[in-house]
Amino acid sequence: MFARLTVAVAVVATVACAGTNSERRYPRRPASCALKIYHSPVPEVTLWDDLGVVEVGCYLDESEITCLHRLRSEACHMGGDMIYNVPKRALRPLERAMIYRGMVAHTREPVPKPGDAKSTEGPPADASAGGAIVPLAPAAGAGGSIVPLPGVTEGMIAPSADGGVDAAI
What we know:
By secondary structure, the protein is α+β, with helices and mostly antiparallel strands. The strands form two sheets. A four-stranded mixed sheet has the order 1-3-4-2, covered by helices on one side. Strands 5-6 form a two-stranded antiparallel ribbon. The model has no long low-confidence stretch (mean pLDDT about 75).
């Protein structure tokens, strides 16, 4: 009786927790998918979704190219289109082994805001609307004098000319 109940609970838990490929945001990709590898701690894209850590261990008898190929195929199976934070040289935890490890991620498109018409438009049609940036000229009569800030009273701490701090104004 207890054995049947245990088996029934295990089957229900397995079926309930099993996901389908259609539920994944980034489905599995073939092992030879296009993939970018970045050795930097952050990828060179603006938006991405982290999918997880990928790690492969290889014997030293195998080439680094073979080990990197395994790393790429694992990242593709995770649904990624890039791996970042990959070391340039393999880690060597043992005398006859090497390990490559990195973060698998997938690029994400920016989501346009509902009222943001600029995201769908191209550059402005009128050249004067997007002209060059021109610095402002100094105000007449300013003469380089220091203008007190509103709300600053005597006795407040202020920065001095030499980079230190004056005790009071």
